[in-house]
Amino acid sequence: MEKKRDKSRLLYLIPLLGTIFCMGYILAASEDVVYSDYIRLVNSYLPDVWDPKTFFVADILTRIPVNFLERIINVTFFGYSITFEMLLGAACHGVAAILLTTYCRERKLGLGWYLFMMVFFFSLNKWEMLTNGTGWCHFLAFAGFYYHYRLWDRVWARQMAGRAKAVKTADEMAARAQDKKDRIWLQVLPWLITLGMAGPYCGSYSAVLLLTYGSCFILDWADKKRPDMRHLLYSLHVLLPLGLYLLSSSCVIADPADPMGTGRSFSQVFQDDPMLFPKFLLKGFASMVMGEEVMMELLADLGKGMLLCYLAGLLVLAGYVLALWLQVRGKLYKTTIFPLMLLFGGGLNHLLVLAARWVFERSSYGMSSRYALQYQVGVIGIILTVGLVFGQKKRERAGMFAEKTMALLLAAVLLMGNVYTTCEELEKAPYRKWYAKDLQAAALRYEEIEDEELVRLFQYDHGAEKIRQALSILKEQQWNVYRER
Fold first, then answer.
1. Measured between alpha carbons, how far is residue 125 from residues 261, 289, 394 in Å?
2. For position 2, what pLDDT does the model report?
3. Residue 163 and residue 175 in contact, taking contact as beta carbons nearer than 8 Å
């Protein structure tokens, strides 16, 4: 048994290799040059990263405070390197994979399901997040979410098993001490994550926790015939930091130049195109099978219109339904609630993206690579649910032929689609790097470039003057592309 446990530690090589793979892709597909949203960040916070005027403001929480610390480190030691931030994002993604690996080891998930999950987790369907350094803190936030969900999973398992009650043996005393520490962290983590690193993602994170605590409160009450008020305490520690974030968000002064969609109301859009909303959702689900760019190119080659895209979306949606059915049928949530929390998170993320982006009236908006980090949470929940249920003893999974067939079909489609997406993105990496090199060259002679061309190259629609202002700050400080190599 001990030998087997030692062998299982080798699983940690997989997240390590996945992280190295993502870092290699970043180096192959990018260059160290600011563009897009970095223009705003440079103008807002540089050159004086210690300036309290940028920190002590009413909307500080929407600016993701952990960014201030990272920006100080970046400027001080790396001359404002975008590559540093991209690699940091990949490292945080690797931390999240390690947390999932630890869970899989503890729950003895089958090796096949684990490897499938890791291939999906490190898929390049999220290339846009990986090659945009501003997203590093989002990878960190999701690692924090996974850690919090796993912590509650551990507490809930002990609670349902009735452990950590009477202190009789040394093991029981240790279990009780650990339980006490875990429950303290359940109250601390929302304050750290929501206020420090989650940013706009705190909405789905908080909703998952509140939904989970509420469900567990009812289940525990039904099981033990008495309410456990600690669930309400944990919910309060979710609501309070969320309230502070929303208060801070209400102080944001919107930039009139920011795109706000078409400006039409929900009722107007619904009357003109009621199918926009289901199409938006289905395309979002389909993006978990194949990345947007890759899928659009493939559909154009096949000449099948959007039919295959919608079928892929329906298949992933069916996967959610299957996982929820398996959760209820096998009562998996009574022994481990982590997969169910991920299912909640994935579903909520799809709805939140729809709620925020329908105003642009483009159903394809939900397929963007920038949302893959949010959507993949639910698919991981599906994989864990299926893997754990089908890993049970034969008598516990008897009569599940249809469910198993459906799960294997979904797994095959997801695996093939994500491997294909990754291969295609690897082929595109040199072209993305060439574009970044062109950006570097443009940054070095930005004074000579026409305004229209500058806006196009640096993908910043708020005026060439702001681009020139940002580049002049970097040039004066000898940072980023102007740094001596």
1. 25, 9, 36
2. 47
3. yes
SS3 262: strand
**What is the DSSP-derived secondary structure letter of residue 134?**
G
**Which DSSP category does 258 fall into?**
S
Model confidence pTM above 0.70:
yes
Q: CB of 216 within 8 A of CB of 156? A: yes
Q: What is the pLDDT of residue 260?
A: 65
- Cβ(339)–Cβ(113) below 8 Å: no
At residue 164, does pLDDT exceed 50?
A: no
CA angle 266, 365, 350 (to 5 degrees): 75
- Judge whether 323 and 343 are in contact, CB under 8 Å: yes
Percent of the chain with pLDDT over 90: 78
Lookup: tokens for 224: 């033990």
Contact 364, 292 (CB under 8 A): yes
* Residue 225 Ramachandran class (φ > 0 left, ψ -120 to 50 alpha, else beta): left
Angle between helix 170-193 and 230-249 (nearest 10): 20
What pLDDT is stored for residue 258 in this prediction? 62
Q: Confirm if 213 and 231 have CB atoms less than 8 A apart.
A: yes
Percentage of the chain lying above the pLDDT 70 cut: 95
**Ramachandran class of 36: left when φ > 0, alpha when ψ lies in -120 to 50, beta otherwise:** left
Q: What is the maximum alpha-carbon separation in the chain?
A: 79
Residue 156, pLDDT > 50, answer yes
Q: Would you state the structure tokens that stand for residue 52, as one six-digit string?
A: 């309290």
For residues 354, 358, 363 and 367, what is the CA-based torsion angle, rounded to 10 degrees? Answer: -40
Which of 206-210, 249-253, 407-411 is the least confident region?
Answer: 249-253
DSSP 122: T
Preceding peptide of 47 cis, ω within 30°: yes
